[in-house]
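Supplementary Data S3. Sequence and structure tokens for construct A.
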Amino acid sequence: MAHDAPQATGPSKLVIRNIGLILSGALEKPILDGDTIVAENGKITAIGRFKDLNTEGATTIVEANGTTVAPGLIDSHVHPVAGDWTPRQNQIGWIDSNLHGGVTTMISAGEVHMPGRPRDVVGLKAMAIFAQRAFWNLRPGGVKVHAGAPVIECEMVEEDFKELAAAGVKLLGEVGLGGVKDGPTARKMVGWARKYGIQSTIHTGGPSIPGSGLIDKDVVLEADTDVIGHINGGHTALPDDQIRCICEGCRRGLEIVHNGNERSALFTLRIAREMGDLHRVILGTDAPAGSGVQPLGILRMVSMLSALGDLPAELAFCLATGNTARMRQLDCGLIEVGRSADFVIMDKAQHSPGKTILESVQLGDLPGIGMTIIDGIVRTQRSRNTPPAGKVPEVVAK
């Protein structure tokens, strides 16, 4: 298991050639024309046809062998604690295992599983700053974990949010997992967070851990957080009429998670499509959780929403990449010049009845992952968790 993954130590140039399909991560143009991607020093510099691009001087050449390249998947809702260990399941290596499921970036919704988690203002601020610093310095397997998400308490004042922001904290943990459970108090604190550039998420639905409680549509709409966390419940979802009310009553992000109600997930997707608001839908796992760690959770969500939600697979992948990147203001998640060179290379699983990877995903099958790349560095090759792919990429020069 890789903990502190190596970073590039000098100038680097990655060339991925003979790509069969490029998924951009962008809803407006989900498939790109090209067979080659070039990245220098961890950033994408060119996308197009091999014959038209400058591929000289490559330090790493990946022969894609006709496979599909997509942006690295983003998990918008995780609960990290300390390194690659989760006390919720007493499991080591869960982040690295998610990398084998194509996830290259994770967003903390609060480090709520920390044993003895402090509830006093000084302690919760200290823990958030510690988590932000720790995961800034530590990249398990190379995965980018955006952590340091304090769970707000009623005793906090505006100066606390200013102090957190000045220390580098950019996220709030799920509103509702701490002492703040009413709309007016939440709205006031979310406003303070937004004033200082801190993005907010709210718990939605029934209680999930001791100390959490029911957060219904009235609290969600009044709090006005940037992201409606697990709108399909984590695990217990709100009634359909309340979910519809939330979707129609605000313009914020609609987060669907693996560890939620699948029927409610499909209901949310349908409403978002009816409203022409597919760009608001993002995906997370809400792991680690009582149901465990799901290394293939994001892939499973993509497949489930495509197959049962009748959503073209190339658009379903956007929910797990570009949508989240734009909403979370990340420099990854899209295959475009200037973005981080974070990729997952995959193909349809062996013996899938689908003739292509997109058809196989829309039939409900998971793709086989052959490689993950973060910041232009190959992190994993054949996945230990997905079914074997029909075709696999290989590093042919380095």
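Construct B, processed identically:
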Amino acid sequence: MAKRDVPLRWDRKMQQRLARGEAAALGELYDRFASLVHGLAHRVLDDERAADHLTRDVFAHVWEHPDAYDPRQGPLRTWIATLTHRFAVQRLRATETAALVRGGPGTAEELETKVRRASVAARADYIVQSMPAPLRAALELAYFQRRDYRQTAADLGVTEDEARRRLRLGLQLLATARDAGTAPHPPGAPPEYGGAA
């Protein structure tokens, strides 16, 4: 229990420092989460420049609204990932809608399918990054190296039952990305952190 409270204690202190306007706190937060934010933004927007802009927007929002984060609702990492996801989906939807209005290719239904797919992909990336290392290692062996559970067990030095358990749990976590549809929120995030995208 105390071990789980350590990150939340850091989260609470960071939120308090941001609320006091400590620029150094924003720098620490950026150093810790910029790659997560940029990666999620890029996964949704599929555009490096747009992901750069969105990363700045997310950290500007955090700086301007530090009280919007409530440590009792979950980790700061989850809140920031949820903000990123929400902003990225809004930006994608706005950009694609504007292109449709200008007479670009596609339909409103295709736009929603694109948004849904980008949403699910971003959520899956977040889930894989957040899952415990043993589950991630098992999935990587099975998916990228095309190992079955017996080979995975041998590679990881665990029993076959343990390899099956890790693969099953990892796949169950990944399945939540698809189940979330267009309004996903990272695992452990309360509904108010996810909301409709």
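The mean pLDDT is 84. The longest helix spans residues 76-101.
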